[in-house]
Amino acid sequence: MMPLFAVICRDHPGKLQTRLDTRESHLAFLGAQPGVKLAGPLVENGQPCGSLLVVEGDGLTEVKEWAAQDPYNAAGLFASVEVIEWKKVIG
Fold it and tell me: Considering only CA atoms, which of 30, 31, 36, 29 is closest in space to residue 4?
C-alpha cells in the first residue's frame, strides 16, 4: 500500500469567482488521478475557502508536483498549499 498525503489548500480572500470559474477543470483533474481518496472544499461562513484532499502517492515530492498542477493553483486561487504525509487510523 502506498503512503497517504493530506493536501491542504487555502484560497486567497475574495477569489470565490475564480473557484467557481475553474471548478469543472479542477474536478476533471482530480478525476483523472486514481490516487485521490477524498476531496472537498473547506468552508467558512457557508462559503468555500480552500480544499482538503487525501491522496495516495509514491512520495512527498511526487504529490507536491502533482498538486502544483491543479487548475485551481494555476488560476491563482490558492494562497497556500501544504502537503504532508497522513496516516489513516479510523474510518
Answer: 36
Joined together, the cell numbers standing for residue 75 give: 488560476
**d(Cα 87, Cα 85) in Å, to the nearest integer?**
7
Largest Cα separation within the chain, whole Å, is 39
Cα distances (Å, whole numbers) of residue 69 to 33, 43, 62, 65: 12, 22, 11, 7
The pLDDT assigned to 57 comes to: 95
Q: Which is nearest to 52 in space by CA: 1, 2, 3, 4?
A: 4
Give dist(CA 28, CA 44) in Å, integer.
Answer: 24
Identify the H or E element spanning 16: helix 16-31
User: At which residue does the C-alpha cell 475553474 appear?
Assistant: 22
C-alpha 91/C-alpha 89 separation (Å) is: 7
pTM above 0.70, yes or no: yes
- Dump pLDDT digits (tens) for 44-53: 999 999 999 9
